[in-house]
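seq as requested:
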Amino acid sequence: MTEAIEYDVVVVGAGPVGENVADRARAGGLSAAIVESELVGGECSYWACMPSKALLRPVIARADARRVPGLRQAVEGPLDTAAVLANRDGFTSHWKDDGQVGWIESIGVALHRGHGRLSGPRRVTVTADDGTVTTLTARHAVAVCTGTRAALPDLPGIADVKPWTSREATSSDHAPGRLVVVGGGVVATEMATAWQALGSQVTLLVRGDSLLNRMEPFAGELVADALREAGADVRTGTSVKAVERQGSTVTVTLGDGSTLEADEILFATGRAPRTDDIGLETVGLKPGSWLTVDDTLRVEGHDWLYAVGDANHRALLTHQGKYQARIAGDVIAARAAGVPLLETDRWGAHAATADTSAVPQVVFTDPEAASAGLTLAEAEEAGHRVRAVDYDMANVAGASLYADGYTGRARMIVDLDREVLLGVTFVGPGVGELIHSATIAIAGEVPIDRLWHAVPSYPTVSEVWLRLLETYRG
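struct tokens:
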């Protein structure tokens, strides 16, 4: 049986990005439907942001406590792994989406469960688990918000090994005795940090010569040092040639021919767009591809199709996807109402400018690594005339109070022609809470002379701002 329903906007994917597109479209007076084949709330809620940070929070809290004289003795001993996992389960609502569904209903958005595929311009066909087919027609726009999935390498034996991806790493009900992590990015370093602290013996295999290679080099260096100090075996310049599982043991063959054994192996080797089976071919687009969009998030060559969040490959971060979603929802509503968009206004309400100039990110390792904007290498490659200003955060009074023997580093990238910041990186305990100030400075293009008058409170870790500016001014 086939049913046909018409809405102003149809959103494919009910993660935080899709939810925000639908919410903003509804706020703009449009009717909206959202299609989801898995749990409403998406990857972030159940297999990424929330469960990973729930696993990491006690790890970081204990590490911080151990750096405070008079407190470290009170937190000796192992973490209560069962309690940590139970808390994680609570933050994922035990992988039930009732609360998210209730929220969608409360904002007046229709939910269609099933696999959604484009079947022509402004048309989405939804096939439910029971075989029921519903055709949704969009008067104004269809938004693809399907996110990404883990990309596994093409290795002999990998299918039979049943490796962990980010989903298994964040939802496991036990700490494996021996865990091999392949990769050197955010997922790899965060999960290595979490499971090492929760009782696994972690071996981290990195093909390149450093960790976190999309951040300033010192970020990866400090995180690698801390992982080794915590007991993890961190090997750079190491490739995986093959994997094999016999019973409960995984044998990993390395590029040099040597082998190692583990109970589980996690591949954190990149992401791929979940656009391979959503009907892109019916509208002249390549299945499985990243979707190229303009700053209003509209897919090039299609005046009705939007790609928001990870699917457009602009910035694979939940908060950036939600930022895009707010813009896309407002854009769709404005175009539907015939309101002229201020497309020439780089920082206007209808342009996703921050995705190219002020992207913030926090890596919740110990120490934390946080950045916003460009690295030195990126700024130079873009042709800017810049100066990198570095400061040892151990010399900040607030940092020394925060943790005995505080180890960290800060860098800001100054555009010498405009005297504004292009990028900032902090590495050290607690620096995640500093990065929004950097994001404001970069997105707001606040002149250095004006930043001089933004006085940090004493004695806080944020006093590093004053020290960076003093170093710059000389």
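The chain has a mean pLDDT of 96.
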